[in-house]
């Protein structure tokens, strides 16, 4: 089977995917150990019998709903190659908005905390832009902690500490910036039964109080771990901006603001400690 024929077959097989061709290209490039541009440069190249079988197996798994990132074991975020697995959320492009805004609030030597770090995507992205900052990422899940450590070590970021903590439970320090992409989906949300989230841990997605319980808990505790004037930033659901603003206000934060993602949806809300 030629590369171009393999892609045609895979795109047809993935007809129910919104990104059929892209999925096929990423998976075939993974099988071949090449960049996707190789597929366009050498469409007439033949797959070996082993490559053909591996590609067909991956396409079948994708048809059954498994995320491409889980099939390849990697996802790019902020131009950083990150290992991923089913112990954490798959990093998503919209979360880069949280990184962008946090950078505007950070000094070159800021102390930064990422709560619920997962793959380490957010804190590693910040560390890549702020090599003199003191960066810390924590997660409740030991599996997530180990994954984030692997990503940190692979990227050779020496200014990042990763360890286990249930939110602030094991944290003693104070920070200039606290960021979090916490669980914010209501348990009854129909989207939990659709797409890639079916293969991601519910503990990283779902929160009580219509998805706001963890955000509320973080707001209540962050006051004890932020320096004066420090900034707390959340990623949240597109309908939660006003609600998160209210929680920040109830906890004494000032200069509260909600920012939109690339699709013009409310996505990040921040406040400063008075």
TrEMBL record:
Binding sites annotated in the UniProt record for substrate: 181-184
Catalysed reaction equations from the record: L-glutaminyl-[peptide chain release factor] + S-adenosyl-L-methionine = N(5)-methyl-L-glutaminyl-[peptide chain release factor] + S-adenosyl-L-homocysteine + H(+)
Class of enzymatic activity (EC top level): transferase
Alphabetized InterPro entries for the sequence: DNA_methylase_N6_adenine_CS, HemK-like, Methyltranfer_dom, N5-glutamine_MTase, PrmC_N, RF_methyltr_PrmC, SAM-dependent_MTases_sf
Domain spans labelled Release factor glutamine methyltransferase N-terminal: 5-73
Molecular function in Gene Ontology: peptide chain release factor N(5)-glutamine methyltransferase activity
Positions of S-adenosyl-L-methionine binding: 116-120, 139, 167, 181
Family: Belongs to the protein N5-glutamine methyltransferase family. PrmC subfamily.
Record-given protein name: Release factor glutamine methyltransferase
Organism of provenance: Psychromonas arctica
């Amino acid at each position: 089977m030629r590369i171009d024929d393999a892609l045609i077959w895979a795109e047809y097989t993935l007809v129910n995917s919104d990104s059929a061709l892209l999925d096929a290209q990423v998976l075939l490039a993974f099988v071949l150990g090449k960049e996707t541009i190789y597929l366009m440069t050498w469409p007439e190249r033949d797959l070996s019998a082993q490559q053909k079988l591996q590609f067909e197996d991956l396409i079948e798994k994708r048809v059954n709903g498994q995320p491409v990132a889980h099939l390849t074991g990697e996802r790019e975020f902020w131009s950083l190659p990150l290992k991923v697995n089913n112990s954490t959320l798959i990093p998503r492009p919209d979360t880069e908005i949280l990184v962008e805004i946090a950078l505007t609030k950070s000094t070159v030597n800021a102390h930064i905390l990422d709560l619920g770090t997962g793959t380490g995507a957010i804190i590693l992205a910040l560390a890549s832009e702020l090599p003199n900052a003191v960066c810390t990422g924590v997660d409740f899940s030991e599996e997530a902690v180990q994954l984030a450590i692997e990503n940190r070590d692979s990227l050779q970021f020496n200014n990042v500490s990763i360890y286990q903590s249930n939110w602030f439970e094991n944290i003693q320090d104070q920070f200039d910036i606290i960021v979090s992409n916490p669980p914010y989906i209501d348990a009854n949300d129909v989207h939990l039964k659709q797409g890639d989230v079916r293969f991601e841990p519910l503990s990283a997605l779902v929160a009580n109080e219509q998805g706001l319980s963890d955000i509320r808990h973080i707001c209540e505790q962050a006051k004890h771990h932020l320096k004066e004037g420090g900034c707390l930033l959340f990623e949240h659901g597109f309908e939660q901006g006003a609600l998160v603003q209210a929680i920040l206000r109830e906890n004494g934060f000032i200069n509260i603001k909600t920012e939109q993602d690339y699709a013009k949806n409310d996505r990040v809300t921040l406040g400063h400690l008075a």
